[in-house]
Amino acid sequence: MPPKKPSKPRTTGKTADKNKGKNKGKVGILSSEIVYKGPIFGVRRDQVLEPTGVRTMREVITHPGSVVVMPVLSDGRIILIRQYRHATRQFLWELVAGRMDPGENIKQAAARELIEETGYRAKKLRVFLDLFPTPGFLEERMYILIAEGLTLGKAEPEEDEKIEAKAYKRSELEKMIKNGTLRDAKTIAGLLYYFRFSA
What is the pTM of this model? Predict the structure, then answer.
């Protein structure tokens, strides 16, 4: 009598589910294509493997990163700037901010933006908040810094910038946030975090 052939192991539903999700938790970029590259930002199309194991296409705005500066005067007042923002079609009050130039570190970029937009020089710059403002499609990483030990000098705005600077008390800023005068997200986030955890 010939020997019986060994039976094939049965695949249970549990094992099948396990095999089906074997890529879960793994994340990776399978391919990339530069769709647009401009002087300020670019657009990249990635084929990605999501943590769920699903392959999908994501379009991402590339960005070198930015700094936001909160200049705090010796009496505790905070300087905001007012400038026209074309994307919103209106003037906005906001903290000093700008993108990081190639080769700059965070504090160098912050010192440059502070001088350009307000004329102030700071003896001390310290990062107190590190965030991603729009993580759904934007790579930008934003660093918010406190600038202290300020000395007033001459502002050096860029050619297309027309900027007004003004110092505000905490109570005034809180009122501006509450009544909707302040509408810039990074400014609201920076001020509220500072008032709650750093001031």
Answer: 0.84
